[in-house]
Amino acid sequence: MLEVAVIEDPAAAEVTLDPVRGKLLAALVEPGSATTLAAQVGLPRQKVNYHLRALERHGLVELVEERRKGNVTERVMRATAASYVISPTALADVAPDPDRAPDQLSARWLLALAARLVRELGGLITGATAARQRLATFAIDSEIRFASAADRAAFAEELGDAVKGLVGKYHDEKAPGGRRHRLVVALHPTPKNKEQ
Asked: Structural domain of residue 72, as residue ranges?
């Protein structure tokens, strides 16, 4: 089971948005059958089986085993991932484009950058998985508590200068066999319910 899977297919994304199917996916981090899941979600086994078939058609759950119980075959299923992210690719016609209105101080532009990051990484992960290769990535996640807005602005300027210096030092437009990498640096307030 994958830790995180990216959903790029619009039909698969639509299937996951059903609240019952979302509960089934969450429950199927551990293998279960329509019978065992029916009690958890409060639905008849036949209804659960209907939802499981829809999830299975889109590759969101997989068969773990089949058990014979009298005249019935019980299908034990498991989610293909512990969690899912819906890529903006699923909404390609209305996906955000950060190139449309670049503005370093705009929260909406930052959101468009994040959407592009999910879209690009989703495609790269899909390709790497199909090729059975690892994907070289690097990320930093940190929190900073600024004493003032002026400190935040000074930090952003200093960070921008440091990044520009590193890009200038290592970027080689003409490197034979070189491969482009995208660097995204973001700074946003921590949501109030996450602050300590």
From this structure: 2-84
- Say whether both 101 and 190 belong to one domain: yes
CA distance 62 to 52: 9
- Given a contact cutoff of 8 angstroms between Cβ atoms, the answer to whether 60 and 84 are in contact is yes
- DSSP string covering 19-46, please? HHHHHHHHHTTS-B-HHHHHHHHTS-HH
Predicted TM-score (pTM) of this structure: 0.80
Query: CA-CA-CA-CA torsion for 168, 173, 174, 176, nearest 10 degrees?
Result: 100
- C-alpha distances out from residue 155 to 158, 159, 187, Å: 5, 6, 10
Low-confidence ranges of the chain (pLDDT < 50): none
